[in-house]
Design brief:
InterPro entries: Amidohydro-rel, Metal-dep_hydrolase_composite, Metal_Hydrolase, Metallo-dep_hydrolases. The chain has about 450 residues and is of the alpha/beta class. The chain has helices at about 50-55, 100-110, 115-135, 145-160, 185, 195-215, 235-250, 260-270, 275-280, 300-310, 315-320, 330-335, 355-365, 370-375, 380-395, 425-435; strands at about 10-20, 25-35, 40-45, 65, 70-75, 80-85, 135-140, 165, 170, 220-225, 225, 250-255, 290-295, 310-315, 340, 410-415, 440-445, 445-450.
């Protein structure tokens, strides 16, 4: 039998930064990282003084060596915990309306076009290439309610090498007769709606099987159960989905308490629940691997319930500003023990960049009533963009930081003009002034998936 040789080991030497918690930002000026032939980090060592010394110490003499210049640094790949791949063509468009009107006027017409597979291929290829270029090594994607187009997105993520969670959206009308004015006319256009719970569940099962054929262990691309939000589901569909996630050991993503009118609507649609969060809890939707996008209008009981269930929040500050949703209290969530990561929420948000989401998170954190308590530090912002996101997606054992045993999901940043600045200033300049032009290389699972030289 002929066994194929392992890909070469890789050895990097230079400035290396990462977080290990929201309070711990490490910046090593001169350190070595070794990546084995399986794309796994073998060592990180800041005591060696050269690549040669590291190579000898770890028997990495046969590795491909990259020596970073003084204007470069390595950082863990960025994690987008909430992005609508299908809404990418609308980024920057339609920021004149709040959520429910925005969905009806701009979002559903666009999403309904994903019945056209050529259009879907074009948009999804652009989204994955663009987010990789911006350093997104993991993305949690909402697709649309179309099975074939969702399968295409899975195929494209697989081929282009991104780590991704891909969810076929569930979208039934939960409207009751007396809600029709609020709900049917503004929320559920008949051209973009699943016909029955059975159809909705069956196409999700098929999208799971499709991914299983491509990546049987769901090691890089994984299905994610995606009830759009409570108003687009019935209580029984939510429960079926909670049970399906448990049976298949799958993550879940949905929206929670983004907008005041939406939370009022949920109250009227689910009178038996004590809160919006309780609607999901009653349906077993709040798991350790559930991503709750926005989570703005919560009371303390809801926050504590989310923390108790171990679910995470995707903070989407650009979207929260653009469609006037409000300001999520990130420090308050973190202090309550809730996991938090960042989401671009394209196209509620206008930018596909997680770095931009970090910048916006910083800005809005200063606008809450007591900025001395709510302002996010540099370490917190960088944590949210990487390890925080990995915790929310349930992949902190694999991604989000540079610890031996984790996958080499990383970016090489070159911000230029570094000689004047200390290490912390370099990272601040990147967070507040950087963009995709500064991201020179991107790796996922040890493989180079984007290069901009
Ligand atoms: N709530 C339900 N659907 C959506 C969506 O597509 N975008 C945002 N921002 N919120 C939602
Ligand atoms: Fe969203």
């Amino acid at each position: 039998m002929v066994t194929s040789p392992l890909p070469p080991k890789q050895l990097f030497f230079g400035r290396i930064a990462y977080t290990l918690s929201s309070r711990e930002l490490f910046i090593h000026k001169r350190a070595a990282i070794g990546v084995d032939g399986f794309g796994i980090i073998a060592f990180l060592d800041d005591t060696v003084s050269s690549a040669e010394e590291a190579a000898e110490k770890y028997q990495f003499q046969d590795a491909d060596v990259t020596l970073l210049s003084t204007s470069q640094f390595l950082f863990p790949g960025l994690i987008d915990t909430h992005i609508h791949a299908s809404q990418y063509p609308n980024c920057g468009i339609g920021m004149d309306l709040p959520l429910l009107d925005w969905l009806y006027k701009y979002t559903f017409p666009l999403e309904s076009s994903f019945s056209n597979l050529e259009f879907a291929r074009d948009v999804y290829t652009t989204v994955v290439k663009t987010t990789l270029k911006h350093g997104t090594t993991t993305a949690a994607y909402f697709a649309t309610l179309h099975l074939e187009a969702t399968n295409l997105l899975s195929e494209i993520c697989w081929k282009l090498g991104q780590r991704a969670f891909i969810g076929k959206v569930h979208w039934l009308s939960n409207a009751k007769a007396d809600d029709q004015k609020v709900c049917m006319t503004t929320l559920a256009p008949n051209y973009y709606l699943e016909k029955s719970e059975e159809e909705s569940l069956s196409s999700t099962r098929q999208s799971i099987e499709y991914i299983r054929k491509i990546d049987p262990q769901f090691s890089r691309i994984s299905p994610i159960i995606t009830p759009r939000f409570a108003p687009s589901c019935t209580a029984s569909l939510l429960l079926e989905l909670g049970n399906l996630a448990e049976k298949e050991c799958l993550p879940i993503q949905t929206h929670l308490a983004e907008n005041k009118r939406e939370t009022e609507l949920v109250k009227s649609l689910y009178p038996e629940s004590s809160s919006y969060t309780d609607v999901y809890d009653k349906a077993n939707i709040l798991t350790k691997r559930t991503i709750l996008a926005h989570a703005i209008h919560l009371d303390i009981e809801e926050r504590d319930l989310i923390a108790k269930r171990g679910s995470g929040v995707s903070h989407c500050p650009a979207s929260n500003c653009a469609i006037s949703s409000g300001i999520a209290r990130v420090k308050w969530l973190l202090e309550g023990g809730v996991k938090v990561g960042l989401g671009t929420d394209c196209s509620g948000g206008y930018s596909p960049s997680v770095l931009d989401a970090a910048r916006q998170a910083s800005q809005v954190s200063r606008l809450l009533p007591d900025p001395s308590k709510s302002r996010l530090s540099l370490a917190e912002l960088l944590f949210l963009a990487t390890l925080g996101g990995a915790q929310v997606c349930g992949i902190a054992d694999r991604a989000g930081s540079f610890e031996p045993g984790k996958c080499w999901d990383a970016i090489l940043v070159d911000i230029g003009e570094m000689d004047y600045w200390d290490d912390s200033s370099i990272l601040q300049k990147w967070v507040f002034g950087g963009d995709d032009r500064h991201i020179k290389k991107v790796w996922v699972d040890g493989k180079l998936v984007h290069e901009n030289l």
